[in-house]
Amino acid sequence: MHTPVTVIGAGLGGLTLARVLHVHGIPVTVYEAEPSPSVRSQGGMLDIHDYNGQLALEAAGLMDEFHAIVLEGRQAMRVLDRDGTVLFEKADDGTGGRPEALRGELRRILLDSLPAGTVRWGHKVGGARALGEGRHEVTFDDGTAVVTGLLVGADGAWSRIRPLLSTATPEYVGTSCVETYLFDADTRCPAAAKAVGGGAMIVPSPGREIFAHRESGDTLHTYVVLSKPQDWFAAIDFTDADAATARIAAEFDGWAPELTALITDGDTAPVLRHNYALPTGHRWDRVPGVTLLGDAAHLQAPNGEGANLAMLDGAELGKALAAHPDDIETALTEYEQAMFPRSAEVATYEGVEVHRIDSDDNTAHGLVNTFTEKDQ
């Protein structure tokens, strides 16, 4: 097999690249390990920023489709103290540059924009090797293989394509997130629903935070972030949902009941996610015929920018290839020279993935003193 552009990974970054290439008439094939687009939930809400994610959607010609899936009012923000006191509140007046949408819906509009057969499902990469002269072979666990003149690793934190370019591996950043959902919250847990409000709620505290978001209707998605070593989490049996929930809730003893209810009254078993990052400023020397985007290229501690950056990476790479269709190396060099500093300069926080509080919002910055933001 030979394809002009081979993309590994059908996440938001890889699909954005495929869509931009399709817009410019460049053939592309995306290989994805999962057997189908519906095999698992794609996660919660994403705020798509006007300075990166929305630029990618514009390049993909999908702004109308994006506006159709935006959940109104979800840019609202509340900061609470551990006793439930509201420290800061900002309504969604419709003028913010970070509209919210469900990740699964965003992925759907990208998939729907591609010709049938663009994504080859059920192709888990076993390995990749250079063949010389910019050509690479990717082998899959089912025994098949593809040879390509342009290989793009869009396969996330544990990329199987990254070793072609870099020896870097992700390292644990010292925090982990436990997720749970609370359904029908307005009627079943009205105090918790009121605490969260119409958008996002943050309760910052040294070493532990609760972040919750109202998704569709009265569904609340809670992220509990703890600064603990991995061994601490390994001692918890997450196959026993009740016991795991009780152990996590114990870390918030003395907090307001409407806040701890987001943990104890959840309708789904708690899901543990460790946070990893590649070295700050990760980059590589130009290798002919291959590049990376998104978390494969610049995995960072959660900061609210990952999906947006991946989409912009995909769009910018697609545009560079369209601008230099007969000179792949010039296109890849142009893309990487812009991508490296862009990914290194995003805002970073100490703690939970949150929605950036505007830099002119001094009140909020004073209250949420566990988070630090880099100027950009």
Strand order of the largest sheet: 6-5-14-15-16-13-17
The percent of residues in helical segments reads 25-40%
Would you count the extended β strands for me? 18
* Tally of separate domains: 2
In what range is the share of β-strand residues? Answer: 15-25%
Largest sheet: 7 strands, mixed
What's the N-to-C terminus distance? 44 Å
Query: What CATH architecture of the largest domain do you see?
Result: 3-Layer(bba) Sandwich
Helices, by number, come to 13
> How confident overall, as mean pLDDT?
90
- Category from helices, strands and their pairing: alpha/beta
In short:
The protein has 376 residues and is α/β, with parallel strands linked by helices. It is built from 13 helices and 18 strands. The chain has a 7-stranded mixed beta sheet. A 5-stranded parallel beta sheet has the order 8-3-2-12-18, covered by helices on one side.
How would you describe this protein?
There is one protein chain. 31% of the residues lie in helices and 23% in strands. With 376 residues, the chain is of the alpha/beta class. It has 2 domains: 2-72 and 97-170 and 278-344, FAD/NAD(P)-binding domain; 171-277, D-Amino Acid Oxidase, Chain A, domain 2 (2-Layer Sandwich), CATH 3.30.9.30. A 7-stranded mixed β-sheet has the order 6-5-14-15-16-13-17. Strand 5 (77-80) and strand 6 (86-90) form a beta hairpin.
SSE arrangement:
Elements: E1 2-3, E2 6-8, H1 12-23, E3 29-31, E4 45-47, H2 53-59, H3 63-69, E5 77-80, E6 86-90, E7 100-102, H4 103-112, E8 119-120, E9 125-132, E10 135-140, E11 145-148, E12 151-153, E13 171-182, H5 185-188, H6 190-196, E14 200-203, E15 208-214, E16 220-226, H7 230-234, H8 241-250, H9 257-264, E17 271-277, E18 290-292, H10 295-298, H11 306-323, H12 328-344, H13 362-367
Parallel strand pairs: 1-11, 2-3, 2-12, 3-8, 5-14, 12-18
Antiparallel strand pairs: 4-7, 5-6, 9-10, 10-11, 13-16, 13-17, 14-15, 15-16
Helix pairs in contact: 1-4, 1-11, 2-11, 6-9, 11-12
GO biological process, one term: response to antibiotic
Function: An FAD-requiring monooxygenase active on some tetracycline antibiotic derivatives, which leads to their inactivation. Hydroxylates carbon 11a of tetracycline and some analogs.
Domain FAD-binding: 3-337
